[in-house]
Amino acid sequence: MERTANQVTLDLVCSLYREHTEALRAAKDAQRAHRRANPTMKTQLDDVEAEITYLLLRHLRPEKVVEIGSLHGWSTSWILRALADNGTGGLTTVDLIGNATKTVPHALAKGRWEFRQGDARTIAPALLSDVDYLFIDADHRARFAKWYLSDVFPKIDAAVSVHDVFHRGTPLPFTEGTEVVRWLGKTRTPYFTAARARAKHAYARLNELRRELGVDATVHTGRDNPMIYFRIHRSVDAGRTAGGPEVAPFR
Length: 251
Fold this sequence. Notes:
Pfam families: Methyltransf_24. By secondary structure, the protein is of the alpha/beta class.
């Protein structure tokens, strides 16, 4: 994976919107058509966070992506579309249910997607030793977060995104979001979010840029964009900076 040392910042995301404007517009058109073709599919990613995920995957060009949690495959299709546009990389998705296998377009899946049904805590560890990008949107209870924070994060060297952290300005107590934010602070790992409730400046600036570039047409109606993005390195602990030099996460 190229450029893995980069932290995710608002300036980087803005530059990626400009670099990949036409590709993003085409990806959004394709996702909109995909959603129309599957009207009962639950679409979990809001537009801005889906676009950022797509843009970061285009930028980082990961060879191995692991997705923990997919439900109906909306995030899966966004990830696969980025890999297809890169012309390289593969995705392995782990979920307790197999609904995504019924909705992910065959043209995107062929040759680049593997689905494994079951508990991520038993399936995922064997997949993660050489993962480049880890996408997490599964069990949002604290117990699940404690598993991957203690058993997964210290062993990987990857870009990471975690969904459903900032539906509010701070995560609810006893949730995955609270555990992840606490870990980020403990390890001094900078992160980025465009969540409207947490990072109003970033959310507003990105929407202004999207209007300027003409890529603001709605695909999904959600507006929370609660996902967070960060970069971690192997064998981090409380005494080391996990993400490298500290940066202002929303600027």
